[in-house]
Amino acid sequence: MKSIRIIVAVAFMVLISSFAINQVGNSNSDSGYAIGDAATDFKLRNIDDSFVSLSDYPEAKGFIIIFTCNHCPYSVAYEDRIIALDQKYKSQGYPVVAINPNNPKAYPEDSFEKMKERAASKQFTFPYLFDEDQTIYPQYGATKTPHVYVLKKENKALRVKYIGAIDNNYKDADKADQKYVGNAVDALLSGKAVPVETTRAIGCSIKS
């Protein structure tokens, strides 16, 4: 009887250990990138019909990756601020790369042709890429538009340094007193730690 109890106990411990290992191993695939993770490159179609990868920017120190779209009022509210981020930080080595993750069958306003029209209307200064197969936003773990990931080049890897919102007031840029993305990039450029590494992204859910 004692030996049976020992066997049952060992089997239970093995089962629990196996479950824990699987949970750890699947954590990134379930939720996307965490702070410190290395982001993989991608190759997506730009509004000028070229294909863009992060490797196309050998001189960049990092990137401001923003998942955004045409129809979402939160994304529209942030468009001028996204342009301003690119204009300020591109010359310092942190260009904006915008990605539309939405399925245009769910929202025709987010079609590739409409992306071209929106970019021309707003005079976007950054690439506006189409995640047509919807394979990139799940890798990152993006759930909203807009949803921002600040990456820094470290030893040939692109390390995630910030995830979340652009600032703390989507309604009024002048009333935003916590400029999360700007503060993160400023800190990285100064060789300092990012003061706030994660925030909750505020926006529309990504449409699959």
Task: Name the CATH homologous superfamily of the largest domain.
Answer: Glutaredoxin
Shape: globular
- Which architecture name of the largest domain does CATH use? 3-Layer(aba) Sandwich
Order of H and E elements? HHEEEEHEHEHEEEHE
Q: What is the CATH topology classification name of the largest domain? A: Glutaredoxin
Which structural class is indicated by helix and strand composition? alpha+beta
Report the radius of gyration as a whole number of Å: 20 Å
Mind summarizing the main beta sheet?
8 strands, mixed
CA(first)-CA(last) distance:
55 Å
Total count of helical runs of at least 4 residues: 6
Signal peptide: 1-22
Domain Thioredoxin: 33-190
Pfam families: AhpC-TSA (PF00578)
Organism: Aquimarina intermedia
List the helices and strands and how they pair.
Layout: H1 2-25, H2 27-31, E1 38-39, E2 44-46, E3 51-52, E4 62-67, H3 73-89, E5 96-100, H4 112-122, E6 128-130, H5 136-140, E7 144-145, E8 147-154, E9 157-164, H6 180-189, E10 204-205
Parallel strand pairs: 4-5, 5-6
Antiparallel strand pairs: 1-9, 2-3, 2-6, 4-8, 7-10, 8-9
